[in-house]
Amino acid sequence: MWIRRRGEKGAAAVEAAIVTPMFILLIVGILEFGMFFKDYLSVASAVRAGVRTASAEPRMSTYAQHAADSVGGEGAGFARGDVQELWVYKANLADKFPIGASSFANCTTCVKFAWNGTSFAPTYSNWAAASQQACAAGPPDRVGVYLRLRHKAFTGFIFTSITIEESTVLRFEPKPSTQTCEP
After folding, report:
1. Residue 113 lies in a domain
2. pTM for this one?
3. Which candidate among 81, 88, 107, 157 keeps its CA 20 to 30 Å from the CA of 11?
4. Has residue 65 got a pLDDT over 60?
5. In whole angstroms, what is the distance from residue 65 CA to residue 18 CA?
6. Based on the structure, what is the number of domains in the chain?
7. Is there a domain that residue 87 lies in?
């Protein structure tokens, strides 16, 4: 048997008015960050596919375009039009940054790409395939793929956009010394 005390009329409505907005905010937050993580995982997967392709094609003139095509093919989970930067670059021996740099602010020995609506097209190229070191006898050059994407929020309640940056570096697959493998 329920006994209603005096002054408790409407208490459930007040509690619901306090809890409901917090519950809705929690659900929206879960949706927003779920979409962000989906894009982040798609970007990471696309970058890994691109660097695997580039590392398998040392001294081939199409290595960078094939890497960018791999990024585009693997990146079906994110909007390719939101890509701000896509680089295939010669990496430092000690870290993941472009040669001669300590960040991704600039790249001089690389090939840069932009999305043209149907594919990634080169916009800057200063790393010729003929200049790559890929001999089995010596240490091969390291190739990296860097991608920066602007993730737009689903609802805009928690944030409006977040920048996703990802890079991966591998060594070129060594070529036999019987083939042209060094500049």
Report:
1. yes
2. 0.86
3. 157
4. yes
5. 55
6. 1
7. yes
Q: Cα separation of 92 and 32, whole Å?
A: 36
Q: Residue 5 falls within a domain, yes or no?
A: no
Q: What values do phi and psi take at 10, rounded to 5? A: 85, 5
User: Do the Cβ atoms of 166 and 47 come closer than 8 Å?
Assistant: yes
Cβ of 65: how many Cβ atoms within 10 Å?
21
State whether residue 173 is helix, strand or coil.
Answer: coil
Mean pLDDT is highest, among 14-23, 59-68, 173-182, for 59-68
Q: What is the pLDDT of residues 114-163, one digit of tens each?
A: 999 999 999 999 999 989 988 877 788 999 999 999 999 888 888 899 99
Residue 55: give the domain boundaries. 11-171
Token pair of 149, please? 């994407």
Q: Predicted confidence band at 14 (pLDDT cuts at 50, 70, 90)? A: confident
Q: Which of 59, 55, 70, 32 is nearest to 147 (CA)?
A: 70
pLDDT at 177: 63
Sole residue written with tokens 């793929």: 145
- Round to whole Å and give the CA distance between 100 and 108: 8
In a domain, 179, yes or no: no
Amino acid, single-letter form, for residue 56: A
